[in-house]
Write a structure and sequence with these properties.
By secondary structure, the chain is an alpha+beta fold. Helix content is 30%, strand content 11%. It has one domain (2-81). The protein is built from two helices and four strands, in the order E-E-E-E-H-H. Strands 1-4 form a two-stranded parallel sheet. A two-stranded antiparallel sheet has the order 2-3. A hairpin with a 2-residue loop joins strand 2 and strand 3. The relative contact order is 0.15.
């Protein structure tokens, strides 16, 4: 948090405890490939694609970013809970 002066949005691949900056506590979100790869795999199978392009990965990332906006209002949340990802 120091390097961003408290403005960083952080998600890590492993769980971390909350961190404090200037007396304010920030939750550290956790993120992993379970958000993107199942959909990529299903899309590849459905389309019978022979490769995965950068554009496919960008489209999946953008779709996740689009649905994540409503969840970012919760303290420490960057992404929606994995249990609602298919909604």
């Amino acid at each position: 948090m120091n390097w961003s002066r408290g403005k960083a949005i952080i998600a890590t691949g492993s769980p971390f405890p909350p961190t404090t900056f200037n007396g304010q506590t920030f939750e550290v979100s956790q993120c992993n490939n379970s958000y993107i790869f199942p959909g990529i795999g299903l899309g590849v199978l459905a389309a019978q694609a022979t490769s995965i392009s950068d554009n496919m990965l960008m489209a999946a990332s953008q779709a996740l970013a689009d649905i994540s906006m409503e969840y970012q209002k919760a303290p420490g949340a960057i992404l929606p809970p994995i249990k609602v990802i298919r909604d």
